[in-house]
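Give me structure tokens for this 414-residue protein.
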Amino acid sequence: MTVRTCDVAIVGGGIAGTAAAAYLTANGLSVVLLERQEVFSDLVRGEWLAPWGVAEAQRLGVDDAIAVGGGWEIREWTQWDEVVAPGDAVTVDMTSFVPGAGGPRGIPHHLVCDAIAEQAEESGAEIVMGARDCEVDAGEEPIVRYRKDDEAVEVRARIVLGATGTNCRVGRQVGLPMNTSVDHWGAGLRVEGLTDWPMDVQAMGTEGERNFMVFPQGDGMARLYLNYPTSHRHQYRGDGAAERFLADFELEALPGHGRSVYAAARPIGPLKEWPAITYRPQHGIVTDGVVLIGDEAGTSDTVLGVGLSCALRDVRIVSDVLLSEREWTPEAFLPYREERAFRMERLVFGASVIAKLQCEFGPEATARRRRVRALMDENPAAQVLGLLNMVPPEEVPEFGFSEFFVERLFRETV
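Here you go.
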């Protein structure tokens, strides 16, 4: 068996794992990153980075790599919906919420991971692609075992960062499981050919039994998402699934009945379905020798779209501990645990409200959405939870997280 040693072993090469590797090696720590894919490929992961997440990327010094990997600034958000005529849909300028960050970024996840991993490798990180059968032993001297080709390898590190996303593999191995709940289902597909779609405008809305999203990635490319009831799960599997998915963007709520999407889009990646799961830690996110980051540490309903932003903040806070503390005991990460618990409480609450508004379907839900949109037009304060998509959770006014506020928001249709 081959034995390697390092300061930090990272299991998982997504946005959280690669960003941590890049930042920590740039600041003098030795890092081994283990990723099970042989090459980064499109797994249909989150591909929208909020302005507050862009600011986190800037602090970590990975914003240039995100741009190299195809990060595309989106400047406007149009809230098309069946309850308003397309010409009356509200458009929001997203470029001024976080000073210096600009608008959110639409990113091809796998290409950005590749670019950040390359930056980490240039800084001195060891990036191991095709690391299979990873097993983590927690403790004061944690160990990660894996196989590469036919070779068994053991990594002895001062600490292990679990960054395997919603697979939660490290957390399960070291006794840090998640509670889960499913609100609805979703599917995603990366496409090209959207030459008539304005590349600086993203879309979100609901029509019939589907919540639709369009996130441009530049040059006619975009990631398309649909959310729908759990009773319709697996509707985009089997022969002709991509064609059915694109046909469902033939929407009256979109300009031109969505022809600029469904008639023009050509798939350039796989179509994947998934349950929209909320993950909440059962016993915490830190134990002896192991810290969980990114989605592995818990996440809100995907309709909120801040998973990547959370991952980058996790990396920054955990890295600050690793670079400032001599002893990496669980107690040293108390600030991370407290900040993340507060952050997730707000994000899970806000996501539940947005999911109720956008991802519940039928006549009652449509009537609710129509009334709430009218209320928001009359009183901008009713839009407060929408700020979670733009600014850090701690900057969103406290009143938006009260049951009283939600009761008043939905009171006529609950």
